[in-house]
Amino acid sequence: MYIDQLKKAFSQAYPDSGTPSVCRAPGRVNLLGEHLDYNGLPVLPSTIDREIVIAFCPRKGGIIRLRDVDTRYPDVEFANTPDIPPSPAGSWENYCKAAVQGLNRHCELDCSVGMDLLVAGTIPPAAGLSSSSALVVASALAYLASAGLTLGGNISRIELAALLAEAEHYVGTQGGGMDQAVILLGEANKACKIDFNPLRIETVPIFRDYSFVVCHSLVFADKTGSARVRYNEGPLSCRLLRAMVERQAQRTFGDEIQITRLADLWFGPLCLLNSEVEALFRETFPRPTTTLDDAARLLGVSIDTIRERWIGDLPEPSGGFPLQARARHQLSEFQRVESGRDLLIEDDPVGFGALMNASHTSCATDYRVSCPELDRLVKTSREAGSVGSRLTGAGFGGCTVNLVATTQVPDFCDWLKREYYAEFSAPPTFALTPADQQLLVVPSEGASHF
User: Fold this and answer.
1) Cβ distance 362 to 332 under 8 Å?
2) Which residue in 76, 140, 317, 330 has its CB near the most CB atoms, within 10 A?
3) pTM flag (> 0.85)
4) Which residues contact 275 (CB under 8 A, 6 or more apart)?
5) What is the per-residue pLDDT for 124?
6) Strand partners, 201
C-alpha cells in the first residue's frame, strides 16, 4: 500500500510523466566504530528497517525534477551537466546532485538523461541514521535505471559504494565510506564489519535474545547546516594528525615510509602492533594539545602550507588541537570494533554492551562529539536496563543506540518516556512522532528496486 500510494502521488505530481518505477535505500545505525572510516579504519554498522524511497521516471532533455512528499523540502529542478553547480549549503537537492554527478564522471553517462523524482522516507531527519546517504544511494539507483544501466551488471554494489562515498563530498562533508557501503551491501538480521582500502564487508549475526533500540536525543545536528563545520573538524584535524604521525614514523623507521591514511599503520608495510601504534602516538603527541606552530616544527613546513595541504580554513582552537586525545580514540575505537565483531559471533551481548559504553566515553571525552543531552540519554538508558548505550552517527545531537534484552524493551521504552522524553521536546521544525523517538531497529536488506 505504501508503494502504491507513492506511485499515485507521483502521477499527481508529474501528470506529464510516465509510469514510475520505485527504488529504496535503508538507513543505518553504527554499533561501534565512530569517526573511523575517514581514516581507513574498520567500522561495525547495520542497516535499519527505515528507508528512503523514490518513485522515478526517465525524461528527455537532461532536466531533473525533484520533489518530496514532505512539504518542508521545496520542489527543485536542475540541468544534468558534466559539472552540476551545487545549491547553497544545506539544500536537500545537493544529495541528488552528488549522485548524478558522481555517476556521470565514473560511467561517462550522456547528460541528456533526465528524471522525474518523488521522494518519501521513514528515516527521521538529522538523527545520525544516514537519511542523507540513503538519499544519495536511492538517487543513484534511480539514475542508473533511467540511463538504462543495471546494478550488478554495469556496476557492482561495492564499486557503487566506493564511488558514492567520494561523490558525497560534493555536499561539503568530509566523511568516509561507511554509510554508502552498509546501505548498499547490508543484509537482513546481520551487522556489517566494514574494512577499507580496498572496501570489503563481512556480515555477522546480531544477538538472538537482545535488540538494538535507537533513541533520539531531540537535539538535531544537520551535517549540511550549522553542524557541518563541527563535523568536518574531525576529518580535517585527522589529516593533520596523519601527516604528523607519518613524519614521526619516518624519523623512527626511515624516510621511505608513507602513510596515506591512518589505517596504514596497521595494514600497510609497517604492520605495527597496537602497542607500537600507541608508542608512536605518544612520541608524536607528547602534550594534550598541538598548536599549528608545533605541527609546523615537526613537519618542517609553514603554517600556510599546513592549511593548504591538510586543514584549509579550520579554526585553530585556543591552546591548539586536541590531537593526543583524537589519536587515542582512533586506537581504542579500532580495538573495540575488532573485539565487537568477535562478541557478535560468540553471542555475548554483555561483553558487547561494555564496548558500547566505553565507546561513548571515548566519543564524549576524547573525540568531543557528544553533547549534554546525549550524555543524559545514555545515562538514563543504562539506568533503564540497557547493557550498552552510546551515541551513534556523527554526534553533536541525533541518536543513541542501546542494547536491551528483547523481553525488557517495552519497560525500557516506558522508563525513557518518564525519565527523559517527559522533560525534553523536539523543536517544531523537526517534530517527531513517538514512533520516531524510539525505534526498535531490525537490520534490513541493502538498497534495491521494487
Assistant:
1) yes
2) 140
3) yes
4) none
5) 85
6) 194
Report the SS3 class of residue 243: helix
Whole-number pLDDT of residue 272: 97
Tens digit of each residue's pLDDT (9 = 90 or more) over 44-63: 999 999 999 999 999 999 99
Query: Which sequence positions are flagged as catalytic?
Result: 179
Please tell me the predicted confidence (pLDDT) of residue 450. 86
Burial 83-112 (b: 16+ CB within 10 A, else e): ebeeeeeeebbbbbbbbbbbbbebeebeee
What is the amino acid identity at position 56? F
Pairing of strands 113-121, 44-60: antiparallel
Single out the residue of 24, 46, 20 nearest to residue 33, CA to CA. Answer: 46
DSSP single-letter state for residue 256 = T
Angle in degrees, 0-180, between the axes of helices 157-167 and 93-107, rounded to the nearest 10: 120
Backbone angles phi, psi at 248, to 5 degrees: -65, -40
Instruction: Please measure the distance between the N-terminal and C-terminal CA atoms of the chain and give it in whole angstroms.
Output: 13
Sheet holding 438-441, edge to edge: 388-392, 399-405, 210-216, 438-441
Cross-strand pairs, 57? 116
CB 356 within 8 A of CB 56: no
Say how far apart CA 185 and CA 272 lie, in whole Å. Answer: 30
Indicate the DSSP class of residue 61: S
Using DSSP's 3-state secondary structure scheme, residue 190 falls into: strand
**Across-strand partners of 263?**
none
**What single letter denotes the amino acid at residue 15?**
P
Q: What CA–CA distances, in Å, run from 231 to 237, 358, 380?
A: 11, 21, 26
Contact 109, 103 (CB under 8 A): yes
Q: Can you name the residues that pair with 440 across neighbouring β-strands? A: 213
Q: Which amino acid type is present at position 381?
A: S
* CB contact set of 238 (below 8 Å; sequence gap of 6+): 38, 39, 262, 326, 330
- Inter-residue contact 180 to 164 (CB < 8 Å): yes
Domains delineated in the chain: 2-205 (3.30.230.10)
3-class SS of residue 433: coil
Residue for cell digits 558514492?
164
